[in-house]
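Same chain as my last thread, 509 residues:
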Amino acid sequence: MTVTTNGIFEIVERGFTLEPDRVALTYGDRGWTWSQLRDRILRLAGALRAEGIGPEDRIGFLDKNHPACLETTFAASLLGAAHAVTNFRLAPAELAYVINDSGATLLIVGAGFADTVNNLRADLPAVKRVVVLGGDADEYEAFIANATPLKDRHEASPDDCFLQLYTSGTTGFPKGAMLTQRSMAAHNKGLLSAYGFDADTVNLVAMPLFHVGGTSWALGGMAAGGHTIVVREVVPAEILKTIAEQGVTHAFFVPAVIQMLLDQEGVVEATAGLKVIGYGGSPMPAPLMARTLATIETPMYSVYGMTEMSGVFCVLGPDDHRNPDRQHLHASAGRPLSDTIVRVVDPNTGVDVPVGTVGEFWVKSEQAMAGYWNKPDATAEAFVDGWLRTGDAGRVDDEGYLYLEDRVKDMVITGGENVYPAEVERVLVEHPDVAEVAVIGLPHEKWGETVHAVVVPSHPDHADAEALIKYTRERLAHYKCPTGVTFVDALPRNPTGKVLKRELRSTLG
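reply #2:
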């Protein structure tokens, strides 16, 4: 993948050269042309340089969605530094861990999080300066306005890490995935091809920018020269209003947000002009899939991606969603993008398994991260001879479609048989008495482990363990079925919404 000396900033330079007065970015009632955006980024880079930020340094960012986050990503690239975006949903102790792990010496912090950071300052020894964004005294705008635009730009190398996004941390502390000029350029190329992004695209960025579903989606649309609309947070009625009034053509959501949108009045009319709805981040339950396809006509694209791959690397396109003779594909993660190779490997032996057999997905692509920041052991574990181990268990069919089964670490081994909890969860979630479910393995004297379901009932009176076990036995092999059910009010989740199965195992085991 060719990377120019401007790296990711070439996106902005190209927009400025071709159409300087065209609106590039919108946020609320504010908009910036390519010319204005370029000037702001160069000034921000100049201000950061004046603060001593240079190659391989980290700049921290903590706020809900805001254009300043994208501006900082571009500015970091111009300095040879990396932008470490922090998940604003983290608890204070978790925030301190991520900020300290990144080594950021300067933080750009939304006014709503300023008090939290001030209370943590004694625990952030590396942080020299905090720039408050928004609020009554908007230091960020003054930071830009008073700066001299950067003239001496860093010459970008393909291996430069310019963006550091943190993994969800479902099995431990989050790790900083180092995304490079090469990896993001490769991702943008795949995204433009898969979704038909072009200069006429109006791209809605509603997912958090600390996630690839936010930042990578935004960069892909900008790379095409399109108009990017950033919304601060998910308010379903406001999102539909924005889609309708701003003529949005492309949007990406997690399935939970799609469900919220479907619950709004006027969803059909508001989405009539959409050309693409991408969704991912978690599997879409079959009932929601059926409701979505029956309600809206927008072409649907299911994606399989991960932070370590700079975003999406598999796509299930709209034709596969709406083919009545191939509804089994609704459970598929799609097929790899053209420059990505996926193997299905026995995680214990490293040997490829036969078609249709479950193993671990190993991926080779220029989209792959450089590694985990300051974690050489974790990086060495993640890569095998240039192949990235996804940690995801699944299978591939004879047409090349991937099917995710579960996380390798969540696999239950009962009586020598491998059980992937996601398969059991897919059955249970279709029972009308089940609102949410997580399946785990619990220790068992005879079988080693036994399958156990943790269920949030759809109604407090609908908590019948025997009925649910019987339901699974009618649909699954006996050894895959739960031998016990625990009912809870809510499942424990991390700040990105993923279920923390380690907490369930710890509590129930």
